[in-house]
Design brief:
Strand content: under 5%
Structural class: mainly alpha
Order of helices and strands: HHHHHHHHHHHHHHH
Largest sheet: none
Radius of gyration: 20 Å
C-alpha cells in the first residue's frame, strides 16, 4: 500500500504541474501533439518507437547469450515491453521495471542469470544514455539564446551524479573489485548480509558475473554498447521526426539537444515524467529560440507514443492476470527480504 500511496502522490504532483503549464499556454499546443498521430507522421513515430524496442530487445538478448542462454526473441521483446510499462508508470521513468523483468526472465534462465542480464542491460543503457545526455546539454549551451540558469544548474547536478556513479562502477569493475561491498562500507551497513546469508552470497555471485562481463568479455561488451547506441539513436531519430513535424527543423543538433532535455526530465521522480517533461521542454526550447508551445507539443507527442507501448504492456499483463502477477511478484520479492 505504501508503494501505491507514493505513486498516487507523485502522480498528483505531476498532474498539477501539467495543469498549470497547460493553463498558462492553452490547450492548443497539447492538441497539436495529439493530432500528429493522425496521418503518416504519426505512423512513422510509432514505427520509430518500435525500432527503439527492437534495439533494446537485441541488446538484452546479447547479454543473455554471453551466459550461453538463447531465449526466443519474442519472449525477450514481450518481457521488455512489460518492464517498460512499469518503468514508465513508476515515479522514476528511467528505472522501476528492472525487478519485474528479473521476475519474468527467472522462468527462462533462473534468478541469478536473470538478475545478471537485467542489471547488465541497464548499466549498458545508462552508459550510453549519459553520453547522449552530456552531448545534448553541451549542444543546449551552444544553441541557447537565453539560457535558463535553473535548468543548467539542474543539468549540471544530474550529469555530475551520473558521471560519479559510472566512473566509480567502471573503475571497480576494471579492478575486479566489489562495488556493493564498497557501498555497504560507505553507508555503514554490515557486510555480514552479503557474506553470511544465502541471499547475500547470491547477490555477490550476480555481481561477480557483472564484473566479469565489463572486465573480461570485451567482445560482448562492445556488442552491448553498440546495441545501446543503436537504441538511443532511434530515440534521437524519433525526436528529429517530431521536431520536423512541429517546427520544420532539419537540424540533427536540435534533436540531440531535445533528447538531452528529455533525459533530464526522466530523472525527476514523477510517473511518465508527467509535468517535468513539459516544463523542461518548454524552458529548453524557449532558450534555444523556438516557440515555447513547441515544448508542450513535443512532450505530448513523445508521451503519446510511449503510452501506446504501455497499452500493449497492459494487454500483456491482462493476459497473465493482474492479480496473479501481483501475488507471484510479491512471493518473488519476499524471497529476497528474508
Amino acid at each position: 500500500m505504501r508503494g501505491f500511496s507514493k505513486f498516487f502522490v507523485t502522480l498528483l504532483i505531476g498532474a498539477a504541474i501539467l495543469f498549470f503549464v497547460v493553463r498558462e499556454m492553452g490547450t492548443e499546443a497539447m492538441w497539436a501533439g495529439i493530432s500528429l498521430f493522425i496521418g503518416w507522421g504519426g505512423l512513422l513515430i510509432l514505427i520509430n518507437t518500435f525500432f527503439v524496442l527492437l534495439a533494446g530487445a537485441l541488446r538484452w538478448g546479447q547479454v543473455l547469450k554471453s551466459e550461453n542462454e538463447n531465449v526466443p526473441f519474442l519472449i525477450i521483446l514481450r518481457y521488455l515491453v512489460k518492464g517498460f510499462t512499469v518503468d514508465f508508470l513508476t515515479p522514476f521513468s528511467l528505472f522501476g521495471g528492472e525487478t519485474v523483468r528479473i521476475f519474468l526472465m527467472e522462468k527462462e534462465v533462473g534468478v541469478k542469470k536473470s538478475a545478471f542480464s537485467v542489471i547488465t542491460d541497464k548499466i549498458l543503457d545508462v552508459t550510453m544514455l549519459f553520453f547522449f545526455l552530456l552531448l545534448g546539454i553541451t549542444l543546449f549551451v551552444v544553441y541557447s539564446v537565453t539560457p535558463s540558469d535553473s535548468l543548467l544548474f539542474y543539468a549540471a547536478g544530474v550529469i555530475a551524479l551520473v558521471l560519479f556513479v559510472l566512473v566509480l562502477f567502471y573503475v571497480k569493475a576494471l579492478q575486479k573489485e566489489s562495488f556493493l561491498k564498497w557501498v555497504f562500507a560507505i553507508v555503514g551497513i554490515s557486510r555480514k548480509y552479503l557474506d553470511e546469508t544465502e541471499n547475500g552470497r547470491a547477490i555477490i555471485e550476480v555481481e561477480e558475473k557483472i564484473i566479469h562481463f565489463f572486465s573480461g568479455k570485451k567482445r560482448e561488451l562492445v556488442k552491448g554498447l553498440a546495441f545501446s547506441f543503436l537504441r538511443h539513436f532511434f530515440f534521437v531519430s524519433r525526436i528529429f521526426l517530431i521536431m520536423f513535424l512541429i517546427t520544420g527543423s532539419t537540424d540533427p543538433g536540435i534533436a540531440i539537444t531535445v533528447y538531452g532535455l528529455v533525459i533530464l526530465a526522466m530523472f525527476l521522480p514523477l510517473p511518465a515524467a508527467l509535468g517535468s517533461m513539459e516544463v523542461i521542454l518548454v524552458l529548453g526550447l524557449g532558450a534555444i529560440g523556438h516557440e515555447i508551445g513547441a515544448g508542450l507539443t513535443a512532450a505530448t507527442t513523445l508521451r503519446g507514443a510511449d503510452l501506446m507501448v504501455c497499452a500493449v504492456g497492459v494487454i500483456l499483463f491482462i493476459r497473465l492476470s493482474f492479480m496473479s502477477f501481483y501475488h507471484q511478484f510479491n512471493k518473488f520479492m519476499e524471497r529476497f527480504a528474508k
